[in-house]
Hints:
Layout: H1 2-24, H2 29-35, E1 55-58, H3 77-85, E2 88-95, E3 98-104, E4 114-115, H4 119-133, H5 161-165, H6 183-189, H7 193-198, H8 214-228, H9 232-241, E5 250-253, E6 267-269, H10 271-282, E7 286-287, E8 290-291, H11 295-301, E9 323-327, E10 330-336, E11 342-346, E12 351-357, H12 370-384
Antiparallel strand pairs: 1-5, 2-3, 2-12, 4-6, 5-6, 7-8, 9-10, 10-11, 11-12
Helix pairs in contact: 2-6, 4-8, 4-9
Amino acid sequence: MKILKCIVISILALLLLAILGLYLTGNEHVLKGVANTYLKGKKGPSIDEHEIFHNRPIANKVHDEWTYADNFSELSNEQSAYHEKYGSVAFVVVHKGKIVAEKYWDDYEEGTISNSFSMSKSIVSLLAGIAIDQGKIKSLDDKVSAYISELKGSDKENIKLKHLITMTSGIDFGESYSDPFGFQAKTYYGDDLFEKTLEYPLSKEPGSEYLYQGGNTLLLAKAIENAVGKPISEYAQEMVWQKIGAEHNALWNLDDEDGFEKASCCFYATARDFARLGELYLCHGMWKEEQVVSSEWVQNSIKPINVPDTSGANTRTYGYQWWLYDHGDLKTYSMRGMLGQYVIVLPEKEIVIVRLGRSRPDLGNNKERLDFIKYVEMGLELSES
């Protein structure tokens, strides 16, 4: 019994030392991560855990009703089986402004909000465009340090806003989703997000290389916040959500109570309301009779940045935090999240596709997103039926 007691005390002492070590090294976020993943039988972040974070509401106002198309179609058994295989919770297809297909799984319904993950980057890009339209930000050629004073006199002083929005800042934050001590884990589960972004040094000449990094979006969001004088959630509510007739309130997770938005992820909304963002861009920034963001901004957002990536290849699949892919002869642009969240726009067909869910296929060595192709094909089939 005495030996057992010593073993228990030793284990507790080691645990306390480990916890103390996490706090001393600035890695206390690991505790929250473990508590909300492995101890709950999960391997990582999930789509419906906004309750474990502080968040800021993005209120709707008078909402615009969706209408169903005359050719509204049910998903085929094969299509439904694919969604079920990868844990889809919502799938909505809009054609010429009307819903032609819609289905929900796992107790989700029209009014259920879900995490966007990196689709939120496209929302931050939209807010940057509005801030420029309003004259709150002069130009993407402005230095970020003009809006974030903490960068003045640092190695990052000459980074421009265009470098942040095109992921060419030259800062290597790290984009690993499996490293519990990495930047992504710190920004998802941790606090003091803005301060954490300042810790990373410049590693490349700004504008010289494309490297997808969520820290760029966090800095861009802070620049917008400082330029407009309010949190980006409030700005999104005023300048976007209430103008596009959102049906439900949205949420944006924060790093602390009344804190800073986790801008590179964690915007929660319904599939139908995410579809409105696709419709907004499909209509060149106009909602009904109001120009929410300039058509020039929309067009520039969906042009390839044409900057070499880390392999030296020209980047043709990324714009202003929108993804650009060809599907055969069709152009597409899309918002994208790490678990297969999508808002896909097919402008030539006037189609918007939204998919929310819990997982996606393993890409392996294939750079193309196989699920993306599948959802585009479904959207085309359902719109033409």
